[in-house]
Amino acid sequence: MEGKGPQSIFRAERVSRLSELIEPAESSADYPWEGLAVELFRADQPTAVRVSFEDYYLAAIREGTGVAWTPGAGRRREFAAGDVAIVPPGARHHAITRGPAAAISVYIKPSLVERAAAISLDPGSIEIAPQLASGDRTLQALTLSLESELQNGLRPNRLFGEALGTALASHLLTHYAVKRAVVREYRGGMPRHLLRRTIDHMQSNLGMDLRLSELAENVQMSPWHFCRMFKQSTGVPPHQYLMRERIEAAKRMLVKSRSNLDAIAATLGFADQSHLIAVFRRLTGLTPRQFINRR
Length: 295
What we know:
Number of domains: 2
Largest sheet: 6 strands, antiparallel
Shape: globular
Structural class: alpha+beta
Strand order of the largest sheet: 2-3-10-5-8-11
Number of helices: 10
Helix content: 40-55%
Order of helices and strands: EEEEEEEEEEHEHHHHHHHHH
Number of strands: 11
CATH class of the largest domain: Mainly Beta
């Protein structure tokens, strides 16, 4: 491949997104995710990219093989499906695929990493070391979750994206920072009164597009600690708990008044009745009509 030369070559000194050079197959450009963006790319021929980014950049390889390098940072590294590259802002990144390939690109704003660093580091001391072909299973799992969210055809979930962005930023700091962040482990989950306050806030705002920062500030926690402790206490992350609460409310509305699905969807923060039906079926195994007919 390298001897023959790639058929497609894309170069830029600095970009905010790879989509400025290559048309993505999917993009979160219209998603309400603060500090996080995701793009899916597929190429049916060998491709070379030479670029640097304004944000922290993760490239998770889904299909294909190739070679990557960062000028001045050592030898080239072979990559294959399952590998993830980590490129800090401003670092030059070169990659060449040997044939058809697919990858998910994740962009994390420095401000999001700085907020995560405030847990145990001076934000001014952050330095993430580039990684060209990491087999990190946690990064693979997180990027796969983002890919699934991008492709599920449902309305984007703000809480989900912001929680994943926070998890990615914290993982970079605890595993790839030159000065590693140390995250204190909390046993037993969230204090009961704070958990109750969080659930009450969710239940009082089921139709609102809640932000992770809003929920965390309500109990005076960092978003990272809030997510970890909430899941310890409930067994599920905040976005899943909120969606379950919305579906339980939809059930009550269906039983009590047989409300119109469009009205229920609008009241509970769904995009439309199709969105409501899709989530209802996913969480209960039934459509709203089937639920009513079984009572």
